[in-house]
Amino acid sequence: MWAEPLYTAEEMQAAEETHDGPMIELMERAGSAAAEAVLRRHPEARSVAVWCGTGSNGGDGFVVARRLHEAGKTVEIVLVGDEGKVAGDPAENLERARKLKIPLAEPGGGGVAVDALFGTGFSGKPRDNAARTIEDLNGLGVPIVSVDVPSGVDASTGQVVGAAVKADATVTFHGRKVGLVVAPGRFHAGEVDVADIGLRPGRTRHEYVTQGILEEVPRRGPGDNKYSAGSVLIVGGSTGKTGAPCLTAEAALRAGAGIVTVCVPASLNVVFEQRLLEVMSRPCEDEDGVMTMDAADAIIEAAEKATAVAIGPGIGRTDAVRALIGYLLDRLDKPIVLDADGLWAVAGHLDWIFSRDAPTVLTPHAGELARLLGRDSSAVSARRLNAVQTGADDVGAVVLLKGADTLVASPGRGALVCDLGNPGLATAGTGDVLTGIVAAFLSKGMGAKVGAAAAAAAGGEAARLAGETHGTAGMIASDVVEALSPALSR
């Protein structure tokens, strides 16, 4: 399997309700798993402060405190809230901790802190007192291990609308939560351990993509020729932006396409002829280095043998380009990847995509998706899951929202979340590389959603290999292109 369940708070609650035994058993297993993680990660720590709320997450924390005490650590509980509000199973576990004479202490102290304040049930903005507590916890200057979800992070969306714990590690139970892998929540989670607490797997709307998705990518076989291996057409390039379609074309080839053609401005064709040795170029009508509507016939002719088309890398931003892209979206009955300036062209014209029958994949970053949806880019970054799903529903196509967590959504369905890769991808041109990989996978017959998610995974794995060779500090897009074939050959 190449995907794991990715739980919202509601889906996690439903999974817990399938448990046949008493719920305190789950609390015991969860707290014990978290304590084991603290011991494994910080064996040298002599003292631990366990910060507990009054609800179920605090109940897990009381178990953590007891288990660490039994392991010989000096433990104190920082109870945030009125002890009289602790009820049910949490109260039982607090009583067990008190019987071991584990003290209740004021904030401060401890070589390691455990965050067991809110858990998966939290959403919205912490109240003032809770926010101050979170800030105090973050200000301790010691490693923090969060129990299930860092307090202040919405487990179901990854949203952070106020103070939130910045954990070095998070021990989550049964399965990953959406908020641990979707930004901005992912940036608060640190390293994530998933602990099995004995629940049956459940169905979830969203899924976490693993490296196994690369096994779904068709490889060249002994009976393939250059066309059956995948034929990609790339439409792009303009004065000052010749590098973008070159990166897209080279990435498509390294991702396994058998043949790649670029339709580029005629006045710039010599640039592409010199740069792209293995790629055919088709000069198209242009004006001052930007293609015009007169390029349409040549592009449509070039697309006849293509099994997928990428439109947009470096194509420019003029009224003529917008008209050309609208015409191509209407006339080309092929899978299309739309990126960069191509996304600029369709802003305000989403019906051009919605009316298409053939698969379409849009690959925006937060700013580009904000333009398509008529939102501010900061709003998209704050609510990435909502934004990508809204985008897919509004355009009637697959939307791949780029970022440290790449989200792939299709209309009316959940999202696939891929976080493979490294910070080296934060450089110009890697988006063009991703477009080429998506186009290559579509040209091989992969479905739009799975193909897009597999492309994100391939790019991430290539970045990992490139980082081993070049390091990530100065990684460039062509390093990722170079590593694509090794990544897909493993």
What is the arithmetic mean of pLDDT?
Answer: 97
Total strand segments: 20
Radius of gyration: 26 Å
CATH fold group of the largest domain: UDP-N-acetylmuramoyl-L-alanine:D-glutamate ligase
Q: What's the tally of helices?
A: 19
Structural class: alpha/beta
Biggest pleated sheet:
12 strands, mixed
Based on Cα principal axes, name the global outline: elongated
How far apart the termini lie comes to 17 Å
Which runs of at least 5 residues are low in confidence (pLDDT < 50)? Answer: none
Count of the domains: 2
Helical residues, percent: 40-55%
Name the CATH superfamily assignment of the largest domain: Ribokinase
Give an overview of the whole structure.
The protein has 490 residues and is an alpha/beta fold. It has helices at residues 9-17, 23-41, 56-70, 88-99, 128-138, 178-181, 186-189, 243-254, 269-275, 296-302, 319-331, 341-346, 351-354, 366-373, 377-382, 384-395, 430-443, 448-470, 477-489; strands at residues 3-7, 47-52, 74-79, 112-116, 144-147, 169-173, 176-177, 191-195, 206-209, 231-235, 259-265, 280-284, 286-287, 290-291, 308-311, 336-338, 360-362, 398-401, 406-409, 415-418. The chain is built from 19 helices and 20 strands. The protein has a twelve-stranded mixed β-sheet, sandwiched between helices. Strands 3-2-4-5-6-8 form a six-stranded parallel β-sheet, with helices on one face. Strands 13-14 form a two-stranded antiparallel ribbon. β2 (47-52), α3 and β3 (74-79) form a beta-alpha-beta unit. The longest helix has 23 residues, at 448-470.
